[in-house]
Each structure stands twice: as C-alpha cells, then as structure tokens.
Amino acid sequence: MATDTLAVTPSGRPLTFTSKALILPHLRMIVAGTGSGGFLDRWFVYINSRMRVLGIDNLNQHTTSNLIPGWEAQKKEFSLPVSATTTVYHFGFSENTGRIRSYAYRSENQFLHEELGYGFGIKPPCSIPDAYELPRDLRKMMDEQRRAELSKPDGETRIYIGGEIIVHHLTANGFMVYPFDRFEDYDSDRRIIFQSAPDGALRAV
C-alpha cells in the first residue's frame, strides 16, 4: 500500500507531515486511516497497549465496539463538527487461514466491519495505467488524484495529498516501509508548516 504524509487544517492549509499507516508486527498487520486527524493514532495505541488479540480476525470481533466510543471521545475532545468523518483500515495475515485479510470501518456506517476483496483499493479514485508496475507508477496515479481533488469547486469536500509517498509492503516474512518519492510542493508545504508553528513546537531541522 502507499500513502501520502500531508495533514491539513479544515481550510486546507498544511498543518504537519504525518504517517497515515502504522505497523503492528506482533499481529502481522497494518492499520491505516483517512479523515479526521489523530484518530488513527488513538486507535493504534489502544490496540498496542490495551487489547489482547491474536491477529486481524480476532481483532475484527472487537473493533466496532471499541471504535464507536473512541470516535465519540475524539469528537468531544476536539469539538469536531457534525460533518467530521473517519475511516480505519486493517490489512494483515489471518491467524486462522494465513491469507491476507482487509477490513474497512467507516464512521458513517457506525464502524461496522466491511471486508475488502483482493485488488486495487484507491481513495480518492484515479485511473490505473495500462501495464502498470508498482511502485513505479504510484507517483503518476497520485498526481492524477491531486489534480482531480484540486479542481473541485470551493465548498466541495476535498482530499489533500502531499508531502511524501510512503510505501508499506507486507509479506508473510515481515514488513518493508520506505519513502518512495516527494511531491513538487513538499518544500513550500514544509515552510508553511514550520513558519506557522507555535513557539517550542515543530521546529525545522
């Protein structure tokens, strides 16, 4: 899988760079998220420090009932608007079958589990190049996503993509995570991020 690293304010101003997918080696899985910033981190810490589960399928049995109160706490703590949404994704090897399993949990659907099939899962949508090769064609696909989102009219919900492209490769033998490419506005976004940081926070190196 591949993610970008840009987090923005509600108005779309660059806020920080962040990891949008996190690995849980002891469960042989990756968790990822979209939507409201910080909720994935809350969920990752909760899994890692508060849950006793054997793997992705066992975790699935307890995910919905734990995400609902976690999301309510997130909305209250940060005074999120009613329109705020989030989606959590789980990818990993089943402890029961040894096969890859993928689940999505969407706040709009009360975090009911949705099993995802094999193949491409792309958000926001874009075309897949003929005779594609990964990770070679990731930048081409994400550039198309960026153009489509930036062309949306003011007032329409927009997904902001930027920073770096981070590749997460999960195999039966382990994980490989690495930065693959940077978008052309990485440096300008970084300047905005650090120039707007409060004293004592997010100082540039």
Protein architecture, described:
The structure is a single chain. The protein has 205 residues and is α+β, with helices and mostly antiparallel strands. The chain has one domain: Glutamine Phosphoribosylpyrophosphate, subunit 1, domain 1, CATH 3.60.20. Helices cover 28% and strands 27% of the residues. It has helices at residues 39-50, 56-77, 138-150, 186-195; strands at 2-3, 6-8, 14-17, 21-24, 29-35, 86-93, 100-106, 113-115, 164-171, 174-182. The protein has a 5-stranded antiparallel beta sheet with strand order 4-5-6-7-8, with helices on one face. A 3-stranded antiparallel beta sheet has the order 1-9-10, with no helix packed on it. β4 (21-24) and β5 (29-35) form a beta hairpin. The protein is globular, with a radius of gyration of 17 Å. It starts with a strand and ends in a 10-residue tail after the last helix. The model has no long low-confidence stretch (mean pLDDT 92).
Name a few traits of the molecule.
3-stranded antiparallel β-sheet; 28% helix; alpha+beta; 205 residues
Q: How would you summarize what this structure contains?
A:
The chain has 205 residues and is α+β, with helices and mostly antiparallel strands. The chain contains four helices and ten strands; from the N terminus they run E-E-E-E-E-H-H-E-E-E-H-E-E-H.
Describe the secondary structure blueprint for this structure.
Blueprint: E1 2-3, E2 6-8, E3 14-17, E4 21-24, E5 29-35, H1 39-50, H2 56-77, E6 86-93, E7 100-106, E8 113-115, H3 138-150, E9 164-171, E10 174-182, H4 186-195
Antiparallel strand pairs: 1-9, 2-3, 4-5, 5-6, 6-7, 7-8, 9-10
